[in-house]
Amino acid sequence: MNLFTAVNEGMRQAMKTDDTAITFGEDVAFGGVFRCSVGLREEFGSDRVFNTPLCEQGIAGFGIGYAAMGGTAIAEIQFGDYIFPAFDQLVNEAAKFRYRSGGQWDCGGLTVRTPVGAVGHGGHYHSQSPEAYFTHTPGIKVVMPRGPIDAKGLLLASIRDPNPVVFMEPKVLYRAAVEDVPEGDYEVELGKGEIMRPGRDVTVVGWGGQLRVLEKACDLAASVGIECELIDLKTLSPWDVEIVSNSVMKTGRLVVSHEAPITGGFAGEIVSKIQEECFLSLEAPAKRVCGQDTPFPLVFEKFYIPDETKNFEAIKEVVNF
Amino acid sequence: MSSATFDLSSTFSMHNLDTAPPTSTTATTEELLEYFETMYTIRRMEIECDTQYKSRNIRGFCHLYDGQEAIATGINDVFTKEDSWITSYRCHAIALIRGGSVRQVLAELYGKHEGYTKGKGGSMHFYNKEHGFFGGQGIVGAQVPVGVGLAFEAKYNKKEGEPMNVALAAYGDGAANQGQIWESANMAALWKLPAIFCCENNNYGMGTSVERHTSNPGGEYYKMGNAIPGIKIDGMNVLAVREGMKFVKDYCANGNGPMYVEMQTYRYHGHSMSDPGTTYRSRDEIAETRSARDPIEFVKKALIENGLKEEGEMKEIEKRIRKEVSKASKEAMKGEIPPMEELYNYVYSEDGSKDKTEQQKFIRMPQYDKSIKA
């Protein structure tokens, strides 16, 4: 099963088990541009699966209102790049509703799904990874799966989590990632990372589609005798500090990689926290391998992205410090 | 029970509608007295806020509702607890009218633990779950899409054979120019949601008068929609608000879709406490409104001129309410400040320890006894 089918399965499961669950967004009733909601309208009816006008701020606000009344709202923002018109609603309304109302209510039933990341030809507005804007906002959770099994389990956990969640789907993997996804209902716990491969020399941290790149980088490292411990964070807010700090205590070295621009990116938060927690265990300065501080450049995409060779270089540099 | 009949023929203007509210209404002494007391309490509460703000007992942002009392009062008369209401930052009166007390409102403004959101929100953030009041929102216009979500819930959970509950999203004439109002109005009309878009047109978007901020002819916001009908209501006449909103609610609750409502009103105070409110309008204009259109004077006159109450009796009521507000204010000020843990509560749900935000170990909390109170 590929990633878009896994997302589809996750939503189907959520809607089957929760009568208040609705899903909506631009062209969602027809399956959505990435086919994630295909067949849901036929199964659950047009009262529960429907198209909205092209208005992200309205979509987010609408979902918040419905969730505030106790409903489960699964909103789709067609591209992560289009989430910015909804930014105010998510940051000022969704994230603060529980706090603002002194705990009287919340919009925890809201999950906003959105595709993110580079695809090779997306250009400025179909390639961005806006996770760090949201990790900077207490009150919302930020989740990004690396493959179909996690996509289904994390999505179900996000939809059922009593907090609003921004769920980012690496769109490059929609068709490319194929795994044996379990049938039926299961959740992958939010806030927990996973060690994808253990190693003793250097800790390598990533999330979402970047893990494919990091796996290749770790293979390259292995070919020169460097053992990497590769960690998938899965949830960025709240993130699993323990799994990373335990690993760095062991390896003494850290590389964090993401596609979003380096300045103000989430890697900065991880590196900062880890130097606090593991200062005396560090054998080398922690390194960030990220996108460049430019808008996402169409023709320069290959130069912009933190690919496996850049990561391999960083791993070697950190190990040989 | 004594009552009087009032002419409402000049209090409504309709847009894209074949039907209209009645041209006259009857109100009993009790009803009128209730309106008077509510409105006068709101007025006194807002004046108390003004005083306390200037005495620096209320800090931060503070937007007052005096002048607009008839709107909240008239709407509330028509609404049930099951109807939802969401509004802007100008929300003290709605908090009061939707199941609150003067003391609770002021306690929130004083930053006390007994306030609506435990003193954490302040002026722009009041809520009452029990009474379907979804609060004041600090961002201009942002409450309106949320209100449409509330209306969707009312439609989704509609009971067979009964009218729907309605959701009212209130905003000012300044906010009426926000793009998100159009987005949400479009969705509400498309899906025929029981959403009421209630523009409280007090003539000024902060310091810019309505003629300068809208291209709508005559600054008339009830004509905003081509697909959505509208009604303009004299927002200084509580009976017009009552009858108008009865009509609007009935229309929306019965599946006809949303409606734009424009309440013609006036704000006596500046936009917020940092705005003296006199640079973009004349003192004469304010004084004229006070003498000719004041919503509380209207009710008072209605009671006296129809022989339902004596002038002396009204004076007594005013005196009593002034005392009550002042007492509530003093009590609220005596309240406790919220405990420090409250800072970390309600960021995330409390279902698991991992979700809870925690104090960073090395940050020392201020000692109020030593620093602020001294």
TrEMBL record, chain A:
Arranged from A to Z, the UniProt key words for this protein are: Oxidoreductase
**UniProt superkingdom:** Eukaryota
Q: Please name the GO terms that the record assigns under molecular function.
A: branched-chain 2-oxo acid dehydrogenase activity
Q: Which Pfam families match?
A: Transket_pyr, Transketolase_C
E.C. numbers: 1.2.4.4
Q: Which SUPFAM superfamilies match?
A: Thiamin diphosphate-binding fold (THDP-binding), TK C-terminal domain-like
- Catalytically driven reaction(s): N(6)-[(R)-lipoyl]-L-lysyl-[protein] + 3-methyl-2-oxobutanoate + H(+) = N(6)-[(R)-S(8)-2-methylpropanoyldihydrolipoyl]-L-lysyl-[protein] + CO2
Swiss-Prot/TrEMBL cofactor(s): thiamine diphosphate
- Give the enzyme's main class according to its UniProt record, as a single word: oxidoreductase
List each copy of the Transketolase-like pyrimidine-binding domain by range: 1-176
InterPro entries reported for this sequence: THDP-binding, Transketo_C/PFOR_II, Transketolase-like_Pyr-bd, Transketolase_C
Gene Ontology terms describing biological process: branched-chain amino acid catabolic process; response to nutrient
PANTHER family to which the protein is assigned, alphabetical = 2-OXOISOVALERATE DEHYDROGENASE SUBUNIT BETA, MITOCHONDRIAL, 2-OXOISOVALERATE DEHYDROGENASE SUBUNIT BETA-RELATED
Its protein name is: 3-methyl-2-oxobutanoate dehydrogenase (2-methylpropanoyl-transferring)
Q: Could you tell me which species this protein originates from?
A: Triparma columacea
UniProtKB/TrEMBL annotation, chain B:
Which stretches of sequence are listed as region Disordered? 353-374
Record's keyword terms, sorted: Oxidoreductase, Pyruvate, Thiamine pyrophosphate
One MF term from GO for this chain? pyruvate dehydrogenase (acetyl-transferring) activity
Q: Which reaction is this enzyme known to catalyze?
A: N(6)-[(R)-lipoyl]-L-lysyl-[protein] + pyruvate + H(+) = N(6)-[(R)-S(8)-acetyldihydrolipoyl]-L-lysyl-[protein] + CO2
What cofactors are annotated for this protein? thiamine diphosphate
Q: Which GO terms describe its biological process?
A: pyruvate decarboxylation to acetyl-CoA
Domain of life, source organism: Eukaryota
What Enzyme Commission number(s) appear in the record?
Answer: 1.2.4.1
Q: What does this protein do?
A: The pyruvate dehydrogenase complex catalyzes the overall conversion of pyruvate to acetyl-CoA and CO(2).
> What is the official name of this protein in its record?
Pyruvate dehydrogenase E1 component subunit alpha
